[in-house]
Amino acid sequence: MITRFAKDVTDLLDGFTADLFWNVATSTPALVSIGSVALVASIVAHVPLVGRLLPSVDAYQRLAGIVATVAAGVLFFLVGFSISDQRAETARLKDELIFKELQLENAAATAADAERLRNDAEAKAREAKGKLDEYCVKFGCSDDRKAPAAKGARVVRRCDPPPGYLDWLHHLQRRGAAAGRT
Q: What is the pLDDT of residue 46?
């Protein structure tokens, strides 16, 4: 249990310290510092006037050449790593942007479909209301004398049969039952 905890902490710190290291190593102050070391070492190594003006530096010219070469190599490596990291981040952001645009296009298409379906439903509702109105005009409805409802309000109408219709229907049923038909 303790070793698992220690491994989890180590993995957490490894990821954190690696990111921290590369962020610090590729930061602008670090790159400027390495570049200035490479520049000063290159000047000391390759400009003979410095050795004549400062005799104490003359002994370090060969070492300064090695330091200049190593510092330039490290600088080029870190600048390349930084550019590579920025390209990877740009590619990730580009993919994320494309995905967001795709989501927006899908949302717009869904909204257009919803609008089309709503318009179709409204057209069917108007058609059904028109048929109901025709039926009420033809056969009569008990609520024709009511004031019209507000626009957009749902109206439930009762369509009672005309007077005497139920008696006539019962008479037909009794006559059919008397003749043996059901």
A: 82
Q: CA–CA separation, 68 vs 37, rounded Å?
A: 7
From CA 174, how far away is CA 182, in angstroms rounded?
9
pLDDT tens digits for 23-37?
888 888 999 999 999
Centre a 10 Å sphere on the Cβ of residue 22 and count the other Cβ atoms it contains: 14
Q: Residue 182 has which token pair?
A: 């059901």
Write the secondary structure of the chain as one string of H (helix), E (strand) and C (coil).
CHHHHHHHHHHHHHHHHHHHHHHHHCCHHHHHHHHHHHHHHHHHHHCHHHHHHCCCCHHHHHHHHHHHHHHHHHHHHHHHHHHHHHHHHHHHHHHHHHHHHHHHHHHHHHHHHHHHHHHHHHHHHHHHHHHHHHHHHHHCCCCCCCCCCCCCCCCCCCCCCCCCHHHHHHHHHHHHHHCCCC
Q: How far apart are CA 69 and CA 77, in angstroms?
A: 12
**Token pair listed for 44:** 């000391």
What is the C-alpha separation between 72 and 41, in angstroms, rounded? Answer: 10
